[in-house]
Structure formats: C-alpha cells, structure tokens
Design a protein that fits this description.
This protein is mainly β. The protein is built from two helices and eleven strands; from the N terminus they run H-E-E-H-E-E-E-E-E-E-E-E-E. The strands form three sheets. Strands 4, 5, 7, 8 and 10 form a five-stranded antiparallel beta sheet that branches. Strands 3-11-6-9 form a four-stranded antiparallel beta sheet, with no helix packed on it. The longest helix has 18 residues. The chain is rod-shaped. It starts with 23 loop residues before the first helix and ends in a 9-residue tail after the last strand.
C-alpha cells in the first residue's frame, strides 16, 4: 500500500504481544511511511549546502527553520574605515576604497575578498554606503561624489556641492540583482585638479534579501 504522508497522517493499529498476528503488510506500511518522510525532508535537511563558501549546519530541521525566520544564513557584511583620500588628476577617474578586513561577526560568510565584497550568491541585494568629506578651505563649494559600483559598473551615486566650507556628510543606498562572483565597491571622487581631499568615517554594508531561483544570468 502506498504511503499517505506528506498529504495525510498515517494511522496505525497497536499490536499486543502473544495475542495479535503481525503481518508483512504491517511492517511494509511502516517502511513506506518512513521512506515518504525521508523523501520529503531530503538528505541532510539540517544543512544548507548551496553556498559556495560555507556550509551551514543546524542541530535540527526545526532549528534551521527558526534561523531562516531570523535571517541567519543569508549573506551580510559590514565594512568600515576611519579615513581615506582622493587626489584629482591622478589618472584614476574614481578611487575605489580598499577596506581593512572586518571582524568575523561582521562577515559571517566570508565574502570579504581582501579589499571589498564579492557576492557569494545570486539574488536581490541591498547596499548602503556613507562617508564624511573633510573641510577643504581652498576648494569650498566644490563637488564631492561617492558611488556604489557592482562589477565595476556604477549603480548609484551622489554628488554634492557644499554651500560653504565644512564637513560634508553623504549617504547612498541601492538595491538590485547581483550575480554570484560579482564585486561590490564604494568609490569616491572630486574634480579639483591637483588637490587632495580627505574622506572620513567610511562605511559600506551589503546584505542579500532573496536568493535567485534561476541561473546566474542577471546583468550585475
């Protein structure tokens, strides 16, 4: 007889020692239901082996489902740097920030590539960046720009011209599909030839909200 799980619960009759006969069908029914449970759960249902850089293992299927609801196991990273600078006219259109290695708790899946971020899964990502440009008396009122790049393509930027001299805070965010293996960078720029502008309190974070259910074929 075919198993009824996972569409129904199987009912079993209790048997008494030395009073009831146990037929082969009784054992076969048990085996069929156990096989149906195994096929439904699959191999190692307490593990996520789809990541290219790490295998997540939970204590049970219930524990895995609980962690999924809490977002554990989704790629996330936070990078920070106290300061950097950019000299216009240096032959670099925009300077990509090279980050120090983050604390492991800020990069649980190891997607830091030594200087920026490499997406380890294809899906819908959210990226935020910010910095504070230092005051530059010789160039008050001059544009400052920051931009998020995915695979060396600009996806979001912001440029501001301060009304007067002083610190300029800039914050940008972007969300979209990123293909596994693509890099995510923050770049900075200003147009004053020969001048070096300082940028402080640099931050870049990225997290994947939803993994793609199609091949790695999206633009970024």
């Amino acid at each position: 007889m075919a198993a009824v799980y996972p569409y129904q619960y199987k009912s079993f009759v209790a048997h008494r020692d030395l009073l009831d006969d146990v037929a082969a069908a009784h054992v076969n029914n048990l085996q069929d239901e156990v096989a149906a449970i195994q096929q439904t759960l699959g191999i190692a249902p307490h593990q996520d082996k789809n990541l290219k850089m790490v295998v997540n293992t939970w204590s049970s299927v219930a524990d895995r489902l609980d962690k999924i609801q809490r977002g554990k196991g989704m790629p996330v990273i936070y990078l920070s740097k106290p300061s950097d600078s950019y000299k216009s006219g240096s032959g670099i259109p925009m300077k990509a920030i090279s980050w120090p290695a983050p604390n492991p708790r800020n990069d649980p899946e190891g997607i830091f590539n030594g200087h920026s971020i490499t997406a380890n899964r294809t899906g819908w990502w959210v990226v935020f960046a910010r910095c504070k440009w230092g005051p530059q008396t010789p160039a008050a009122g001059t544009d400052r720009e920051i931009a998020i790049y995915v695979n060396d393509q600009e996806v979001m930027s912001q440029d501001m011209t301060p009304i007067g001299d002083g610190y300029t805070h800039m914050h940008i965010g972007w969300q979209g599909w990123v293909t596994r293996g693509r890099t995510i960078d923050l770049k900075i720029y200003h147009p004053v030839a020969g001048k070096t502008f300082s940028a402080t309190e640099l931050h870049l974070s990225a997290s994947m909200l939803r993994e793609a259910d199609f091949p790695d074929s999206v633009p970024f």
